[in-house]
Amino acid sequence: MARMKFVCDAERCIECNSCVTACKNEHEIPWGVNRRRVVTLNDGVPGEKSISVACMHCSDAPCMAVCPVNCFYRTEEGVVLHNKDTCIGCGYCSYACPFGAPQFPSEGAFGVRGKMDKCTFCAGGPEEHGSAAEFEKYGRNRLAEGKLPACAEMCSTKALLGGDGNVVADIFRTRVLHRGKGAEVWGWGTAYGSQQAGQPPAQSQPATDTKGKS
């Protein structure tokens, strides 16, 4: 059974937000909730990088660990979903998630969160696949239709990859090798202070005795 994962290639992301738009349009997500968003670091300065962020469907999901009503569950494909009928809107998952994936609607009285919403990897929810109830609560179930998440399919530069984790890893690994950056992609030069990115420090040459030479 394939294990579904997301990877965003920061070298390709151009901050076009097509992934965000595709997600909201596909699932008719209400105003104030963004299942996916684009985060930019060093905006406007050299070294600027952007990355598309959503629920990463963690193998050891912290949201599942802290939920007091156990509304989260994991599918056979490794997708982390939740049951809105069980959710009490406590917000613990929002505090625990390092990616800020759990979202709460901004409408309603002050201090009232309502039912939590998050990226479903376009896998729907606990209701019958393709049903009106499933779409109303969780959006379209593209995985049941044999399709990949809309955000990944709509990415114009193919920076956002989604699907079988092994296939996604092979694609990204091939890109890294073609870029020729070697181990520097993983921060080797920064961590070990090598003189050239991704290369071990050059060994010093033994001194040559020049006495008596003209």
Automatic annotation (TrEMBL):
Q: In which residue ranges is the amino acid composition biased (Low complexity)?
A: 193-207
- Positions of the UniProt region annotated as Disordered: 191-214
Q: Which UniProt keywords apply?
A: 4Fe-4S, Electron transport, Iron, Iron-sulfur, Metal-binding, Transport
Residue stretches making up the 4Fe-4S ferredoxin-type domain: 4-34, 47-77, 78-107
- Spell out the InterPro entries in the cross-references: 4Fe4S_Fe-S-bd (IPR017896), 4Fe4S_Fe_S_CS (IPR017900), 7Fe_ferredoxin (IPR000813), ET_IronSulfur_Cluster-Binding (IPR050954)
Q: Listed GO molecular functions?
A: 4 iron, 4 sulfur cluster binding; electron transfer activity; metal ion binding
Pfam families referenced in this protein's UniProt entry, alphabetically = Fer4_11
User: What's the cofactor?
Assistant: [4Fe-4S] cluster
Q: Does the keyword Iron apply?
A: yes
Q: SUPFAM superfamilies per the record? A: 4Fe-4S ferredoxins
What name goes with this protein? Answer: Formate dehydrogenase
Q: Which organism is it from?
A: Bordetella genomosp. 4
Q: Taxonomy-wise, where does this protein's organism fall, top ranks first? A: Bacteria, Pseudomonadati, Pseudomonadota, Betaproteobacteria, Burkholderiales
